[in-house]
Design goal:
The chain is an all-alpha fold. It contains 31 helices and no strands.
């Protein structure tokens, strides 16, 4: 099969339509977890801050290529999760096509042209499988989908370089660099290619092997020297050896989820997974995979085993990296699983029909998966059903309820988290925040103090403690807490905002303006700081300055913005412009009484 035949084009088109339909319930879901930090609270993404600086593009830890694509998303469609997910899904479709090309090339290299139709089925499997859905539903995993596109492209052109010029090999190196620039987990490609070259692919000359291995070795040394290899915090309750053993057991679990993808959850529980059964099965999986690799002559099977096991290389360490047991880690290794499945079932009679039934089966689970992503609450409620003893899951559920101001439910979930682990400093901070929302700063002081007892580096707790102290009329203590928050996180714009409020409370408008400007510099999308700053300008008789500031920092979808701009025009005796602003405010918020009163006042004065 030299190219896609017309019937396959229609099947691919139908699969893409079904793909979007299956995941449609999740498209309008909110930002979750790191989405807030990487997108809405990230001035690089929201306002392009630093994109013109060399230091940004040379700092690989910032994943500059990924950040740039997120910036483009934000520039085109604003902070709308829908379009971010659509972009991720389009990247996933491209990745599925790359998987098709890679598998097709492997069959051709293996001399099995009669099986290249299976490559099309494997591409569809990659497209539709819900185990991979976290990579595009969880918007922050843009790095995973983007890096995988370059990763798979590098692997494809490397395979193509077996039969064509060295230029394809050099193109493969360039794509690997782009993959690594998107996300450092692309590092595993070095080991995958080395093993394929040395032990899997046919007809490699000694000179080619020497060239490839030399390039890979030098690349590895440069990356390890430049970026220091793997780093990460150690889990308090997981030793390095236990962590490694957990990874072995999880490799088996993910293999099972690739066959029956249920239940799929956002946050898996580590504490229940280090047992003899899972550990034994994981070790059997490793030994069995090695023996199978040695025994088989199938290039496709060998490639699948290499990609699966060494695609996981990035996390197979004794350094306990946080948040490593998550589904998006399976994106590249799943290509290996698909290759193994094609080897196992490729010779079955009527395999096309069986494959079609399996894909329909997966679509059902994909739709179920998408429904849990409709909101943060549904996402974490579903998670809590299957991981009821994980305090972090209940903490996340409590935060989800806090975002919709359901303090009763938030309190219930947070207390469950603290029942499981009373030293959970995040939950303790959230408990203090709940009491602040209930206007009980005195009661908030205790859990916030406990949160800092367990983690003095919790800058959010310092900020919330400052809020409690400010409400209790303890300005010096509040200022000290806010400064501690900023010291721990210099980009903590909320602390600067609260310093502005504290300065206003103490009737120090100049200090308040300075704090609000700092907040806005760190987070240009923080409307409350803009609003308070403009009110101070207007109160200080600086209406022209307030007007110019608002025009330079537009929030055109915010009705309060138009109210403030209308007030500035009013103070400058510009009733026509003021009326236009108040009318726009009413269009955005018809129940806006302030705008209506100002319009009536302007009409009365004009008469």
């Amino acid at each position: 099969m030299s190219s896609l035949k017309r019937p396959k084009v229609w099947i691919a088109f139908l699969a893409i339509v079904l793909f979007f339909l299956a995941y449609s319930p999740a498209l309008d879901g909110p930002f979750v977890f790191d989405d807030q930090r990487q997108i809405t609270d990230n001035p690089v993404v929201s306002h392009g801050v630093g994109l013109g600086e060399t230091s940004f593009w040379t700092n690989i830890n910032e994943r500059p290529l990924t950040a740039f694509t997120l910036f483009l998303n934000h520039r085109i469609s604003g902070a709308d999760p829908f379009w971010f997910r659509i972009t991720n899904m389009l990247l996933h479709i491209l990745n599925a096509f790359m998987v098709f090309l890679i598998v097709k090339e492997l069959f051709l290299l293996d001399g099995k042209k009669e099986k290249v139709d299976l490559a099309f089925g494997i591409g569809l499997l990659f497209l539709l499988h819900p185990l991979l859905s976290e990579n595009f539903l969880y918007i922050s995993q843009r790095g995973s989908t983007l890096s995988s596109f370059f990763y798979l492209g590098a692997l494809f052109f490397y395979l193509r370089s077996k039969s064509t010029s060295i230029m394809r090999l050099l193109l493969s190196v360039l794509l690997f660099a782009l993959a690594f620039y998107s996300k450092q987990t692309a590092f595993s490609l070095i080991m995958v290619v080395a093993l394929l070259e040395l032990f899997v692919l046919p007809d490699s000359s000694n000179s080619r092997r020497a060239f490839v291995v030399t390039i890979l070795t030098l690349g590895s040394l440069v990356l390890l020297y430049k970026y220091g290899g793997f780093t990460g915090k150690t889990f308090a309750d997981v030793s390095g050896i236990d962590y490694l053993l957990l990874q072995i057991s999880f490799m088996w679990k993910y293999l099972l989820l690739s066959i029956v993808p249920f239940p799929l959850i956002l946050d898996y529980d580590l504490s229940t997974d280090l047992n003899l059964l899972w550990l034994s099965s994981g070790i059997v999986l490793l030994i069995g995979g090695l023996l199978w690799f040695i025994k088989t002559n199938s290039l496709v099977l060998r490639s699948g085993l290499v990609i699966y096991f060494f695609g996981n290389l990035v996390v197979l360490t004794i350094i306990p990296l946080p948040d490593v047991f998550v589904e998006h880690r399976m994106y590249i290794p799943f290509v290996g699983i698909a290759l193994v499945l094609s080897h196992l079932f490729g010779n079955l009679k009527h395999v096309k029909y069986l494959w079609g039934v399996f894909l329909i089966f997966l679509l059902v689970f994909a739709f179920v998966r998408a429904q849990s992503w409709e909101s943060k609450i549904s996402l974490f409620e579903q998670n809590s059903k299957y991981v009821a003893l994980n305090d972090r899951v209940w903490t996340n559920l409590g935060e989800a309820y806090l975002e919709v101001s359901n303090t009763a439910k938030a309190l219930e979930a947070t207390n469950k988290a603290l029942t499981i682990d009373s030293s959970n400093y995040v939950a303790l901070n959230n408990l203090g925040l709940i009491y602040l929302l209930e206007d009980n700063p005195e009661k908030a002081m205790e859990p916030l103090g406990q949160s800092l007892k367990y983690s003095m580096s919790n800058y959010r707790a310092w900020n919330n403690l400052g809020v409690a102290q400010m409400r209790l009329k303890k300005p010096r203590m509040a200022l000290k807490s806010f400064m501690n928050s900023i010291k721990l996180n210099p980009r903590q714009f909320d602390a600067y905002y609260n310093i502005g409020l504290l300065a206003e409370q103490n009737r120090k408008p100049k200090e308040a303006i300075k704090a609000y400007l700092k907040c806005i510099k760190l987070q240009p999308s923080q409307w409350k700081a803009h609003h308070n700053l403009v009110l101070l300008m207007l109160a200080g008789g600086k209406a022209e300055e307030a007007k110019n500031f608002l025009l330079e920092h537009p929030f055109r979808r915010n009705y309060e913005y138009w109210n403030d701009l209308g007030a500035a025009h009013t103070n400058l005796s510009e009733p026509t412009y003021a009326a236009d602003c108040f009318k726009k405010s009413l269009e955005l918020e018809p129940s806006n009484g302030i705008a209506l009163q100002n319009i009536e006042r302007i009409i009365t004065n004009s008469e």
